[in-house]
Design a protein that fits this description.
A hairpin with a 4-residue loop joins β2 and β3. 41% of the residues are buried. The protein is built from 27 helices and 15 strands. α4 packs antiparallel against α5, α6 packs across α11 and α13 packs parallel to α15. By secondary structure, the protein is an alpha+beta fold. The protein is globular, with a radius of gyration of 29 Å. The N terminus is likely disordered.
């Protein structure tokens, strides 16, 4: 280790703050690090700079590239330099990687300083004797607790005692709870005043992932589950607009700071929090921040048994009430009762369903299906578990799980949807999910009944996300657009909804708005489902194809065909060869249908379109894309449409703009929609 004097080779900057953490002091202006025993700790200049960056952004992820840029500006260095600086810091702080009391590594992402930090806003002058006495007292108390932890290793790990001691010393020593410092509202020099306020969503909240102060364990799963459930509970309050969990997580995975996060989500406020476990007790510290100013609107610390469902639900109810009060909005009596109601009598079922929903966010539908099934087995009347099970089974109709078929998934989806209606006939969710399941089997008469019920209930567009695609299939694009726009307010990174919205706008002649949705989707996620739709729309516009190599495409052969879309002999041979393929995959068949339509082979286009709808008629919306304008005039398409059942539906319920009856049959020309 090099001499401490190396830390003094930079000029003093009196504008820098000083920091204290768990007995350690960091004098940023004079570049000194002092240990709990009051003695200076010698570290290299680069290690000191690294610590300063991490500690000034405590409880935030700092990427490797951000650290390299801050510590080695205008210098090209290898990752090993940063690794060495982190290693030196851990050694100096007696913080081995296996314990990570101060610095945690997030593989592939960067580092975070997780110990509680106190920022010292004093001048460069010598501290008063009272301050010195206070610091001596803090160090003495820390030493006593550290000694106790070494003498009683079986009671609690040293790491946990150390973290509790830090919180105790830095905050209210009379409090029975661990209080965690607030999350900094920015990870760079920008401040929140730069957020555009005119476009903010009224009473909107983004709930940030909760920091888990401990090792990876079942307790960490509890932190994830609680985060998800608080979002779920707050979403039940109609006066609030809660940003969907996956939208927040997707943006945070891009390592955006809170300024950028606020701009994209257009939120008025954030909820951040930390969780620490002591035995079976979870201690949770939460803060509600104003996104524009960074001011804390409300904060509280809770304690709940991590196996006590009543305590957890009571905690969530109290959080909801405090948030509503802080934002000066309203909560209906029925909403309050809904939040306070125990979702299930089985804590194990509750855990299974939370884990199932988390699997859904990871697109692990097999795990989601199995966990939701187990939750229902434990509590057959568990409403939320039936919601999870119905939606995932409808999704799996198109791609059944091993050992199952489409019909079995449909029946399970329908059964759970009907159970939801039985349990809560006054809620819209069951009717929407039943219609969603029925749409895969062309049962339009029953679907019509569900739609009539939802209309009679006056369900808000944001509650109808399960039926938006049904409206697309039936040619009611205006209703679909309204539903998707409403859902995207709180789910801006629901890229499937944005893709469907893009298609609906294109079909209704709003080409420029469709392009805008595509460009926004590209900004939010460079790889998304809209890339596929944009290929199909470009073929309909007769425009050059873009981003072919970025497509998540079923086979490499298809990607090659798109690269050579103007090689007519090659394309036509591929279209004919595809006829010989048995058991065509729907996700692959739609590409061949679109390419055949582009080459004006309406017979093959209809044949492959039918293959794309196999066992899943809820994908009928593909037929309305502009690339199929001429295909829809072909007799084979008329037969396909009759087989879909929508003609009978329209004859009873009225015809859409996309198709109209004629003297002999009907015609599906591309209409002129009012913009």
């Amino acid at each position: 280790m090099i001499a401490a004097s190396e830390n003094n080779n930079k000029p003093v900057d009196k504008n820098l703050a000083d920091y204290q953490f768990c007995g350690y002091s960091l004098d940023a202006r004079h570049r000194k690090l002092t240990g709990p025993d009051g003695k200076p700790i010698a570290i290299s200049s680069r290690a000191f700079d690294t610590l300063l960056v991490l500690i000034s952004h405590h409880n935030q992820l700092v990427s490797k590239s951000q650290l390299m840029e801050a510590v080695w500006p205008d210098t090209v260095v290898e990752d090993n330099n940063l690794n060495q600086a982190i290693f030196s810091l851990r050694k100096a702080l007696a913080d081995p990687k296996a314990e990570s009391r101060f610095i945690i590594t997030l593989p592939g992402k960067g580092y975070s300083f997780v110990a509680p930090v106190e920022e010292i806003l004093t001048s460069d002058e010598t501290q008063s004797s009272d301050s010195e006495a206070t610091e001596t007292s803090r160090i003495s108390l820390l030493s006593r607790i550290a000694d106790w932890s070494r003498q009683h290793p079986t009671h609690m790990s040293i790491m946990l005692i150390f973290a509790i001691a830090c919180a105790y010393i830095l905050y209210d020593p009379d409090s029975p709870f661990v209080v965690i410092p607030e999350l900094s509202m920015s990870s760079n020099t920008n401040n929140m005043s730069s957020v555009e306020t005119l476009d903010l969503i009224q009473n909107s909240i983004a709930v940030l992932p909760f920091e888990h102060l401990g090792e990876e364990s079942d307790d960490h799963v509890f932190a994830v589950a609680l985060h998800d459930e608080i979002i779920n509970q707050l979403s039940k309050i109609s006066s609030l607009n809660i940003i969907a969990r996956d939208s927040v997580l997707s943006l945070m995975e891009q390592q955006l700071n809170l300024d950028e996060l606020a701009k994209i989500l257009k939120v008025e406020s954030f909820i951040s929090g930390n969780i620490m476990h002591v035995g079976d007790v979870a201690r949770i510290s939460l803060h509600l921040h104003d996104a524009n100013s960074g001011v804390t609107l409300w904060s509280n610390t809770y304690q709940a048994g991590n196996q006590d469902l009543k305590e957890i639900i009571s905690l969530q109810s109290d959080i909801a009430q405090n948030v509503v009060s802080a934002l000066q909005t309203d909560i209906l009596l029925t909403e309050q009762q809904n939040i306070e109601e125990l979702p299930t009598t089985s804590f194990e079922a509750y855990q299974y369903n939370l884990a199932a929903k988390n699997a859904h966010y990871q697109q692990d539908f097999l795990t989601e299906w199995e966990l939701a099934r187990q939750a229902i087995a434990l509590d057959p009347d568990y409403y939320d578990a039936h919601t999870t099970f119905s939606s995932v089974n409808t999704l799996l109709v198109a791609t059944p799980l091993p050992g199952m078929n489409s019909r079995e998934h449909f029946e399970l989806a329908l059964r759970s949807a009907e159970k939801l209606i039985e349990l809560a006939p006054d809620k819209s969710e069951g009717y929407a999910l039943k219609a969603n399941a029925l749409s895969t089997t062309r049962n339009w008469p029953e679907i019509s009944g569900m739609l009539d019920t939802l209309e009679a209930m006056n369900a808000a567009p944001s509650e109808l996300k399960f039926i938006a695609l049904i409206m697309m299939n039936l040619g009611d694009f205006e209703s679909a657009i309204e539903i998707y726009q409403a859902s995207l307010i709180t789910e801006p990174l629901n890229l499937y909804a944005r893709g469907f919205l893009m298609a609906a706008l294109e079909i209704t002649g709003q080409e420029e708005k469709a392009r805008q949705q595509y460009e926004l989707g590209e900004k939010l996620s460079p790889l998304w489902w809209g890339d596929v739709l944009n290929i199909f729309l470009a073929l309909g516009r007769n425009e050059p194809l873009m981003d072919i190599d970025e497509l998540m495409i079923p086979t490499p052969e298809l990607k090659e065909l798109l690269h050579h879309i103007n090689d007519e002999p090659r394309i036509k041979k591929a279209l004919l060869d595809y006829q010989l393929v048995e058991n065509k995959i729907p996700a692959q068949a739609i590409y061949y249908a679109v390419i055949a339509a582009y080459y004006q082979d309406q017979e093959l286009a209809t044949l492959y379109l039918r293959a794309a709808l196999h066992n899943n008629w809820s994908a009928l919306f593909w037929a309305w894309l502009p690339v199929f304008d001429q295909t829809r005039q072909h007799q084979d398409f008329n037969t396909l449409l009759r087989d879909s059942g929508v003609i009978d539906y329209w004859q009873k319920n009225g015809w859409p703009n996309i198709c109209q009856p004629t003297e002999n049959a009907f015609s599906c020309e591309r209409p002129h929609f009012p913009l």
